[in-house]
């Protein structure tokens, strides 16, 4: 319990509340003190002015007798506790409502009407000699002294509730934010502990800054979960994809260890085992290459690449192979000027090679393959299309995933990494990759950012093609 | 040729050494960067074959040290690492060529031969010959046994590259790099299709084959 209280007391909202209370108290005290002194001074001045005015009134009397009568008349109606009037006539006779005497303790006021002989309190007195006598007027300072009490009361009545309200408000806020901060802390603990599904969740009623932190944390957790899931998927895909060829190699080696195996058969098995191992190696090489591209480091070696020239080079390289597969290849380079992008020529070449080889493998005999470089909406672009069976619209996203293969492609050569590699190279170039229907067939379109524009165009991976296979 | 192979994996090391010895090369095999540094500085080699990751002194440091000491022996790096980044790093460190594991022995052997700085038929030659074939580099005409052979420009370039390196194996990737100036990893037999077109023109109509396929490696023009 005391631990919780001290934790609350150390929390930021409570400290803020405490600081504000202290500041408010100091300011209130200072302003109250200032108004007290100002008010007191003005009271004092008023009193002095009143005394002088009283005195002036009595001075107006024509004679000592008249003055005595005036004083007596006034004194009868005046409470000596408030105003003392005392006139000692030239004949030493005393008129007034009180007598001012003096002994070793100082001045004393003694009421003339008996009852309460000695009057306590402080007075402000004015004395003047009039008609051979002495007139003393003294006003009680009680009102001024009471002022101090009034101000003390104001202080107690206003400041103390304020302090209490502020402190409890601070404590409430501190407890509330401690709850919210605690929830964020628990989420982080869970994430650290391996529960990647942990989220801060609803932040309704939270203060906006903590809401912000909570939402950012959730975003981060989501991204992390997605990448870990993807990674798990890839590792299990790799394991699954390699199990079959490894099993085959083991079978081939097993068969080769038979003693009576004729040499030609042994050679054939050897060739098969080698081919399987080559396939395994190519999967690993592909994965390694993709992960290297995804680090983004090849970007440091980017140079200007003429897409038109690249398309021509690859047309030339693949033209005989396409002919052998009884397919046809057309290359077009258009646009008012060469389409030049910043990039890695070898990697972009690998992209073209993978796309052309995919068409060679999957489009079937008689298919037309078209490669082109040019502009789409003023942006440099590359495209490879074929008139084969295409990729069903629902599977177009999936084929970009590592090791994903369409069911009908399981038996054709290839490691299921070609399009993933294409996707990673395209992402490296901040370009957009779109798999579209070619009616019939597949059309892969790559659109680059405008030259000289640094900002990346968000990759669009679920394009809508007209129809599709 | 005298070669130094620096490879810490015993199986791979002795496989490379045995293969190269069978080709008639003299091979020294060491398993650490330190031993390699001692060997390379105390003896003279035609080519060094260096694995990137060997104990004591790694391959990159070894080659940088040798280059720093003025040793210009050609170096072929071997690596299990990927090709995109490391290829460039290796070449920057002073390597002359780069081969990613696992590799075919033929590729290794062809690349070693290419590195050995044996003179390529010089640029100023005006004609190249092999058997009864003659390539005129000025008129850009090819004849064989007196007959004119009509070649497309790239076919001409491919044949010229092989002729200038008569007797030496050129692998598929070497041909892609040399003729089309591009380094990529084709999964299909693109180079074979070009060679077979070239063969259809320069070999088929004649009795002897000049362009020879070297199994598991590449192609060569017979001397």
Q: In total, how many domains does the architecture of chain A comprise?
A: 3
Distance between the termini of chain A: 69 Å
Shape of chain B: elongated
Number of helical segments of chain B? Answer: 8
DSSP summary: helix tally of chain A: 9
Oligomer: heterodimer
Reported CATH architecture of the largest domain in chain B? 3-Layer(aba) Sandwich
Determine the N-to-C terminus distance of chain B.
19 Å
What is the CATH third-level topology name of the largest domain in chain B?
Answer: Rossmann fold
Q: Low-confidence parts of chain A lasting 5 or more residues at pLDDT below 50?
A: 453-469
Give the SSE string of chain B.
EHEHEHEHEHEEEEHEHHEE
**Number of E-state strands of chain A:** 14
Low-confidence stretches of chain B: none
Number of strands of chain B: 12
**Mean pLDDT across residues of chain A:** 82
Question: Strand-residue fraction of chain B?
Answer: 15-25%
The top-level CATH class of the largest domain in chain B is Alpha Beta
Topology (SSEs and partners):
The complex is a heterodimer of chains A (469) and B (223).
Chain A: H1 2-10, H2 12-59, H3 64-76, E1 83-88, E2 94-96, E3 98-103, E4 106-111, E5 118-119, E6 123-130, E7 133-140, H4 142-192, H5 208-256, H6 263-294, E8 303-306, H7 307-324, E9 328-333, E10 340-343, H8 345-362, E11 368-376, E12 379-386, H9 418-428, E13 432-437, E14 442-447
Parallel strand pairs in A: 9-11
Antiparallel strand pairs in A: 1-2, 1-7, 3-4, 4-5, 6-7, 8-10, 11-12, 12-14, 13-14
Helix pairs in contact in A: 2-4, 4-5, 5-6, 6-9, 7-8, 8-9
Chain B: E1 2-6, H1 10-22, E2 26-30, H2 33-42, E3 47-51, H3 59-68, E4 75-79, H4 84-92, E5 97-100, H5 105-115, E6 127-130, E7 133-136, E8 141-144, E9 147-149, H6 153-164, E10 170-171, H7 172-180, H8 190-202, E11 211-214, E12 218-221
Parallel strand pairs in B: 1-2, 1-3, 3-4, 4-5
Antiparallel strand pairs in B: 6-7, 7-8, 8-9, 10-12, 11-12
Helix pairs in contact in B: 2-3, 6-7
Architecture overview:
The complex is a heterodimer of chains A (469) and B (223). Chain A has 469 residues and is α+β, with helices and mostly antiparallel strands. Chain A has three domains: 1-195, no CATH class; 208-292, Helix Hairpins, CATH 1.10.287; 297-447, 2-Layer Sandwich (Heat Shock Protein 90), CATH 3.30.565.10. Helices cover 53% and strands 17% of the residues of chain A. Chain A has nine helices and 14 strands. Chain A has helices spanning 2-10, 12-59, 64-76, 142-192, 208-256, 263-294, 307-324, 345-362, 418-428; strands at 83-88, 94-96, 98-103, 106-111, 118-119, 123-130, 133-140, 303-306, 328-333, 340-343, 368-376, 379-386, 432-437, 442-447. In chain A, strands 9-11-12-14-13 form a five-stranded mixed sheet. In chain A, strands 2-1-7-6 form a four-stranded antiparallel sheet, with helices on one face. In chain A, helix 2 (12-59) packs antiparallel against helix 4, helix 4 (142-192) runs parallel beside helix 5 and helix 7 runs parallel beside helix 8 (345-362). In chain B, 37% of the residues are buried. Chain B has eight helices and twelve strands. The two termini of chain B are 19 Å apart. In chain B, strand 1, helix 1 and strand 2 (26-30) form a beta-alpha-beta unit. The A-B interface holds A 277, 281-282, 285, 288-289, 291-293, 297-298, 301, 313, 316-318, 320-321, 323-324, 345-347, 349-350, 353-354, 357, 360-361, 413-415, 418 and B 81-85, 88, 100, 102, 154, 176, 180-190, 193-194, 196-197.
